[in-house]
Each structure stands twice: as structure tokens, then as C-alpha cells.
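Consider the following assembly input.
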Amino acid sequence: MTIRQLIAAMTAAFCLHAQARSVPAPSAASAWPVAPAPGLYQAFGERAGLRTLMDDFVVRLKADPRIGDKFRGTNLENLAKSLTEQLCQLSGGPCTYNGPDMKTAHASLGITRADFNALVEVFQQSMDAKGIPFARQNQMLALLAPMYRDIVTVR
Amino acid sequence: MPMPTRRPLHTTLLLCMTAAVFGLGSARADTGKLVLTGGVSSIEGASGGGISPWAVIGTQATEGETGVAAYVSRATTDDYRLNAAGVAVGFNDRLELSLGHQDFDTGITGTLLGLPGLHLRQDIAGVKLRVAGDAILDSDTLMPQIAVGLQYKRLHRSGLDGTLDALGARRHGLDAYVSATKLFLAQGILVNGTLRATRANQNGLLGHGAQLGGADNGYELQPELSVAWLLQRNLAIGFEYRGMPNKLQRAGAAAGLGDGLRADDWKDIFVAWSPSRNVSITAAYVGLGRVVPATTGNRKQSGAYVSAQIAF
């Protein structure tokens, strides 16, 4: 089998496989099929590190010219606390997130895909500011990214 | 009374779309794709890698937005030079329209054909539709982003027309492709596979198909593969492979040229850098294999490729 036949076969198989499951399963914030990368929780400085990161993040969110308005009436303290629990649990830490599921939490906020991407960028800025390595940032983002299905309500 | 000068269609379209780039760009500076997730401009104008279209919709526009991108590219190999430029418009992260122009300096080959200074020019109109998936955010499944596309290519008239006619190659043709793009986000690796139905010779610069000597004139499926590693948010390196039809070899043999018109697959290794959210610069080392080896000492053509894109 030549390299081109191999690539053709792989591409065809990939597309067929993808087509077969082209209807994404309904997501639930409590049932992520992706396990956190080993050591991710520690790489973010555990609960204390996550809290420092989230304290920085929520301030940046509110100050962002694109999406700051969405957080006008938000209690930043509570948001940082809630996000810390959520990221702690997602990244493999000994926490239990008790806040609302993502769909309920964002149902009335009119979040667009551009809003979601802006939030990702602000999160990246916060992680940069805390010196989180790029590879670790992506491991955390991989756990958060699929939430766009529940958070983005304006399609 | 002198005839009014007729501006070629592609020039008019390019001017219009370039005006749109700057018009839309200033009006919609806040389009919201993540950096580099729209790919860069391929040499045919579609967004993707350098030599292969990806399933991503180009420009900075995400859902609910319209964006535009423009690029200039240049490749220099042992015996040839290719300049390319074009524009693309992205709608709603769903539909991409692109227009590319290529100018191929045939160098020594033109001279040996008795056509010194021969340039082959072609226009490429592309349309791409995202049909499923999200390449970036669906990081909890293997589901890639999938798009289908068409590229209509048309060669300008040139001194080579008689030769192409003799070989039975048409001066225009249509490529159809399906692409699947997946960012493995936790690993920082992007993979794209494209299957292209084509009968283009050297990307259409030497026409489409061939009939002389009973050459295979039909469509064939060619695979293309791109792999990119994200080193930083705005910096990626990778490689690409693009299978190419080889329809002129047999026609060339029938014309007494032996293997003189043989074509090989294309490959490159690249680095893409986005110094700001609206600008990306790509540099690559390309290997295009043999391109009319009859006149180039059977050399494989390799060399440098650079491309700059602005996108809003």
C-alpha cells in the first residue's frame, strides 16, 4: 500500500466514522467523557492557585469591552468562587461543583459564539498572566470548550 | 473610434473583493474567531494550509458574522516562480467564497519551448460549505469539522495553448473536495485530511486532463494531509502532503518526450505565525517534485514559499 493509498483510506474512514456520529450527543456538564490530563490540577496550583486565577479572570471579564456588559450585575466574588469549584472538579481536584448546570446558567444571557470566543481569550490572558504553560492551558481548555453547546444560545 | 479597454473579469472581482476587505474590515473590526483557527490562505485562495484546503471557514468571522481575508504568496523553486494573490469572504462560519489568481513564471522551460518569458496565469473561484462539526471546540469527541468545496480554475490564453491542445488538455476545469479538520486541543495538534476529485495538471497551470496517446482523461481521487503543532497561541509548525494527478506523463510520452511531462506529489514543511489577530505570515520549504522534467534536467523542484494574509 503506497502512502497515498494509506492517506486516502484513512481520510475516507475518518469521514465515514464522523458522518456516522455527526449528530452530537446532548451534552451534560456533569458527564464529560474526557478525563483531565494527569497532573493538571497540580499544574494550576491546586485550589488556591485556581482561586487566584479566577479572581483575576472575573475582573478581566467585567473589564472586557466585548463582553463586560454581560457581567454588569454579577457578584464577582461569587462567580470566582463558583468557577474555582468547577475548574477544581474538572481538572481532577477534590472538589464538588454545586452550581447550576451550564445550560440553565446561560439560558437567558443571549451568548453568541463570538462572546464565547472572547471569553476564551480573556481566560487565556489570565492563564498567561499566571504563567500557566501553553500545553497546560490547552489541556484545561479541552475540558471547557465543549460547554459551548450549552452556553452559546444565539445561533 | 478606439475600442474601450476591457478589464478582465478577475481583475474587476479582485478589486471589488479587496475594497470589501477594507470596507468590511473597518466596519467590523470585532469579528471573533480565535487566533489562527481560520487557517491561512492556501495557494488556491481557500482557507487551510499552504497547499491544501481545510474544513475551516476562513477570515475572522464566526457565527453570525461576515469576514474577509486577503493574501499574497510567492514560491520560488529551482527553475520556477509562482506568485499568487486573492481574497476570501466568510459568512456565518458556514460558507466561504474565494477568488485566487496565480502567475507562474515558466523560466527555462518557456525559453526551451521557444517561448521566452512565458507566464502561465490562472484564476480560481472557490466555494466551500461547512456541513458538520466544530474543528476547535468539539474537544470531547473525535468528530471533526467537515466541509465540501468546489474550485473552478481557468487558464488565461498563452503561448502554451497550442501545446495544451496537442496534448488534449483543457484550459479550464473543476475540482471537488471534502475536508475533515480536527484540532486535538489537549494535545495542541491539528490534523486535516482532504480528498479531492480532480484532473488538474500541476494544479491546473498545465491544464486539465490529457488525451494524447490514450492518456487517462478522467477524474481521480487524490488525498491531501496536513498536520500542525501549536507551539504557542500564535505560532504553529507542520507539514503537508498533496497527491497530484500525473495525466501528462503518458500524453508526453506519446508526443516523444518520454517521461518529460511527469508530475509528482507535493509536500511542504511550514511555520505559521500570527503577529496580531488580523495578520498571519507563513513560511515553508516546498517540494513539488518534477515539473516538466524534460526541460529542467529531471530535477525535483524544491524551494521557499512565503505568504502573508490579513483577515477581518
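Chain A touches chain B at residues 3-4, 7-8, 10-12, 14-15, 17-19, 21-22, 24, 27, 32-34, 37, 66, 112-115, 117-118, 120-121, 124, 134-135, 138-139, 141-143, 145-146, 148, 152, 154-155 (CB under 8 Å). Ask yourself how this observation constrains the way the partners meet.
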